[in-house]
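Comment thread on ticket #2218

A.B. wrote:
> Attaching the input chain for the structure job we discussed in standup.
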Amino acid sequence: DKFPPLISVHNGTPMPPVRIYCSQKKKLVCIFAEFSIPLDVNYELADKIIEFILKNKISDILSIGGMPTPEGNQDIFEKVFGIVSSPELAKKAKGAGIMQIKEGVSTGVSAVLMIRSVLADISNITLLVPVETV
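C.D. wrote:
> Ran it. Output below, let me know if you need it in another format.
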């Protein structure tokens, strides 16, 4: 009841706008939202995710989001940027061609997850891809 009253439709099938996908074989859990999580839910949701991560001994968090980018600099749209929880992860990200964000602000659930990860010593990277602002 804290999320907007909407559904997503994919290939003619109604689906919840927030979904959890799991693969025990690949040891992967994916939480996917089709909308921006309301601000008043960010901390509660992030804390529940961290609780789940610690309980299930999950070692890494990967968040993916868009980074609003004005038109005019097309080269930037070919890059992937990242915010990382540790210097060791920064080295790995750089090796993968991810440009570390050294200064700036992040918001939302991924931002709360990042600070909680730093405090709990959980490996976390937030990948940000440039998206055009309208």
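A.B. wrote:
> Thanks. Noting for the ticket: Residues 42-55 form the longest helix (14 residues).
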